[in-house]
Amino acid sequence: MSAAHAADATRGSLRSRVRRQRRGLEDAARSAADQALVSNILALRQYARARAIAVYCAFDGEPALDEFVADACRRGKRVYAPVLSGAGMRFARWHPTAGMRRNAFGFAEPVNAAAIDPRSLDLVLVPLVAFDRNGARLGFGGGYYDRCFAFLRARRAWFRPKLVGVGYAFQELAHIERQPWDVPLWGAVTDTGIHHFEQTGTQ
Ligand SMILES: Nc1ncnc2c1ncn2[C@@H]1O[C@H](COP(=O)(O)OP(=O)(O)OP(=O)(O)O)[C@@H](O)[C@H]1O
Ligand SMILES: [Mg+2]
After folding, report:
1. Is 47 in the pocket of ligand 1 (CB under 6 A)?
2. From the CB of 12, is ligand 1 less than 6 Å away?
3. I need a labelling partner for 108 at 20 to 30 A (CA). Which of 82, 102, 178, 203 fits?
4. Is the predicted pLDDT of residue 195 greater than 80, yes or no?
């Protein structure tokens, strides 16, 4: 097996293990963790400042962001959700009352909403399968976030948007091998706290 294939296989088995653990969370533990997690996101300084925020629609046992979205809408922030088309991902305005439909992957996305240039987002809540202390991330494996935010890899300083991973504390792994295309996270929020990563290797 080549080194690249071995790395793919490792990423694949890590993804399945963490996803299984996440789907297996008991209801009571899940709702307590979701509540703690949302409080931690609400406490972010970057949230207070943000005007345009991308969220995700929970799927496969991901932490629910409903309470967060409700708070953001109350504060008059503009909220966007991912819309997938082929290999691409756009972010479309999400009004709590607007139509949503289930896409081919099985998660909800806004219907007929205008997309925002991802450079105009202030804060992006990025769904995680796993993350590490250096800001490396494993998602579902489609490379959607890496392609959409590839422009951040060319930056010398982190401006916007801030990519903040969202997951449960058990989704933190000791080390994730970062691939050349991976866009590192600026931070991560879990049910037990907030992490801000040193920005080494972001250019
Ligand atoms: N900027 C890019 N240009 C072209 N291909 C890319 C780019 N970024 C990622 N990819 C491709 O996407 C594939 C999956 O990437 P990766 O394993 O990092 O997924 P992921 O970050 O876990 O997925 P997701 O963000 O969808 O949850 C890789 O095979 C990679 O070649
Ligand atoms: Mg990646």
Report:
1. no
2. no
3. 178
4. yes
